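Sanity check

After download, print the first record. It should look like this:
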Amino acid sequence: MEYLIAAPVASFIFVITILTSIMAFSNENLYGNMVLHPYSVYRKQRVYTVLTSGLIHNDWMHLFFNMLSYYFFAFRLEAGTTDFKGLGHWQFGLLYIVSLILSDLPTVFKHKNDDWYHSLGASGAVSAVIFSYIMFDPLSKMMIMPIPIGIPAVLFGVLYLIYCNYASKHSRDNINHDAHMFGALSGLLITIILNPHIVNSFLMQISGGVQSLFH
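Expected structure tokens:
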């Protein structure tokens, strides 16, 4: 109830994504109607799937990791904490929806002629949430497996983008690394547009963190 009151938009997205994903696990028609098919979208068919594909997942593990990451950052980003104001309700909703769309567009163009290719999951929008949070609190600690200690969020962000760029070009797995990378970049851009002052705050926190290392 506390989350619902403090972050109603994040709560709604969290619940609807879990419910829709679970329904799609056992409903092939629902799954087929919601999954992103770049070949069709590029030809102005099923354009709505740039949104609906973010509400379904490939399996339980895919859903679990996306929603776990979302849980750790989305509610605090919308509601704020004692350390930062946060985005607020409408800005959080705008960030999530727009980032979901923007994270899929490069995939649409990249695979516009690949009739066999499909993509799904909230990873692009979740990446946007994480990177928006990093802008507000760049020195908070984040974990990267298998590193046993937390690293500054800003360093996590840099390593994340480097990995996504590399994986996009060289990986042969079924993960849409482009959506991760462009979702993250969309999160940064939208956060700065909505809160231009965040850049100065971000740089001041980084500067303060660097200075503390030498004292």
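If your output differs, re-run the checksum step. Summary of this record's structure: The mean pLDDT is 89.
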